[in-house]
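Category: protein sequence paired with discrete backbone structure
Discipline: computational structural biology
Format: plain text, a pair of labelled lines
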Amino acid sequence: MGPHPAVAAIRLAVRRVLHDLLTEHSRVPDSAGPHPTGPTATSPAAPGRTPTGRTPHRSATGTVTTAPTGPTGPTGPNGGPLPTGPAASGAAGPGTYERPPTPLVLVACSGGADSMALASALAFEAPRLGIRAGGVTVDHGLQPSSAERAEDVVLRLRALGLDPVEATSVTVGRESSSPAHGTAYAGGGGRRVGPEAAARDARYAALDAAAARHGAIAVLLGHTRDDQAETVLLGLARGSGIRSLSGMAAVSGAAGRYRRPFLHLDRQTVRKACMVQSLPVWDDPHNADPAYTRSRLRHEGLPALEKALGKGVVEALARTARLSRDDADALDSWAHQAESAVRDAAGLLECAKLYALPPAVRRRVLRRAAIEAGAPAGSLFARHIEEVDRLITGWRGQGAINLPGRVVARRQGGRLVIRQG
């Protein structure tokens, strides 16, 4: 008998992401040195497998050897995992190929149901794919005994077999002005003020540092379809653009560091997976505190929508996010290509050519120009871009437009000049 359907679902979601990461990671060592040659290297078997179905490993001399595979991946002569690094590959010499180190993937875990389910799935799947799995929990210091809670999460992650595991503390400021990883606000990067946003920024900074410190190729995040629906509604309430409605990306961060395997799974499935595996979980009291906007939306807003519109609201909102992201990506690409065509030889924006662009594309070009001139992306509201846009579409001799970051936009001689000063 296989695992419970909820457990199977979370493991499959993680397995798909890990396969993607392995594919991306395998491209990196291609230029590290010569690849092995000969019949074993050109076998017609599936990529990464020998005809016998075993996992191939490159030796220090450049040949391909096959190691037996155990329940948790490739095993050595003593039944344990194969060594990695210099000890495994030996001293590299002329014509040799040194196997790259085993990639490490971290899970960001708060101890809640979503992240504990993610940690358990990663602990199960990673060894079977030859990936090391670790974890990190962030102590925001916003609640009594938060340090003890963080240490408890570390123990839980180690009990799952994750290594390395660490708890890291952060200091949370009072407000934030930078866009979240994978989420945009107020016309694609509006200012977010409040403890929720500040805690988010501090958390991502800590995760970035942990990933760099351990050399991790990715950090997995436990956001679910329900989280995505809440994010879309928050963007809609702010009157933001289509980029805000696109919610959280499945892949985000520098070089695609952050991965969200559960965006297509609902919160109930993830919680069920924890229950059937007897995983202890911690319910953050902030998630039930009506002082927080997302908490009110979760416990009051979404239930009211489902009562009025029927079941399926969460799934529909998540689908809206996917469609909006595709549209936003296409418009961003269009704007990037159009930008060079609307500049003159001196690099100034030509108002007549800007006017000819569709509004959605033109405003993206204006926003990019303002940011390049020094306007902070997190403080650049949609209303700022609308005022600059009027210099193109509603020109009546009006004066300069002041933008955040001491950036000024003005129309001069049929050109749009955006610069600091």
Remarks:
- Residues 91 and 386 are 62 Å apart (CA to CA).
